[in-house]
Design a protein that fits this description.
single chain; 8-stranded parallel barrel; two-stranded antiparallel sheet; binds (5S)-5-amino-3-OXO-hexanoic acid; binds zinc ion
């Protein structure tokens, strides 16, 4: 069991519209204000998706650099940029996120159905992302949407070595329509699969929507860490 809990906040995501979720931080000012509030109540990592002037998801490099700078200037949070972006983002733009020089970036370990869409993560793309992060000293958070993604991670590390810093951390993203369910049973299955990864591998978990609270409690019970925020949770239940 761990003695401290790492809390990652994912405040924005790429899926919700500002028109539907008034509190969603979409401008740089809103993001920085949210980051400061979350840091004050215990977050230590921020998983960042940014929006353009129309509040649409973007991977614009200038904006990403300005975001990293602003978060560094105003908080002590570890900045983890999303390399997942939106399901429509091309691979080249997702790789270019690393040019904004964050301390961390996400690295999703496989393709998954994503509601009516497909979140595409080809093996060659994953290898490229992992290797570029390794070269640049950017620490990955391996995002796991399904049990088999952990097997792919094992293969990745066996073939291409440990990430920058040598420590492996995964985030279980549970309850996405098309991915693994947000249940205690699925979390336990993932925890068991972690035994095949390097000793000391840590995990956090987040459950989408109505799976938020069961996943949160299951993760804490199993010695895991947490990801919270409006990327994954707009409501806990209808109403
Ligand atoms: N927006 C999802 C398609 C990540 O940030 O790396 C992908 C995602 C994962 O959120
Ligand atoms: Zn994300």
């Amino acid at each position: 069991m761990t003695t401290t809990t790492l809390i990652t906040v994912a405040p924005t995501g790429a899926e919700s519209a500002k028109a539907d979720v008034a509190a969603l931080p979409v401008t740089l000012d809103e993001l920085v204000a949210t980051a400061k509030e979350c840091e004050a109540v215990g977050a230590s990592v921020i998983h960042v998706h940014i929006r353009d002037d129309e509040a649409k998801p973007t991977l614009d490099l200038g904006r990403l650099r300005a975001t990293v700078d602003a978060l560094h200037h105003s908080t002590d949070l570890i900045v983890q940029l999303s390399s997942g972006g939106a399901v429509t983002d091309p691979e080249a733009a997702r790789l270019a996120v690393l040019d904004a020089a964050p301390e961390m970036a996400s690295c999703t370990m496989g393709t998954v159905n994503f509601g009516d869409d497909v979140f595409l993560n080809r093996w060659e793309f994953i290898v490229d992302l992992h290797n570029r992060m390794q070269e640049r000293g950017i620490v990955p958070e391996y995002e796991i949407f399904d049990l088999g993604h952990l097997t792919s991670l094992q293969r990745l590390l066996d073939r291409y070595g440990l990430p920058a810093g040598g420590h492996v951390h995964v985030d279980l993203v549970m309850g996405v329509p098309g991915g693994m369910p947000g249940t205690v049973e699925a979390l336990v299955a993932c925890k068991q699969a972690l035994n095949d990864l390097p000793a000391g591998t840590t995990f956090s978990a987040t459950g989408i929507g109505r799976t938020t609270l069961p996943v949160m409690l299951a993760s804490l019970s199993a010695g895991g860490h947490l990801r919270v925020g409006m990327e994954d949770t707009i409501t806990y239940a209808k109403g």
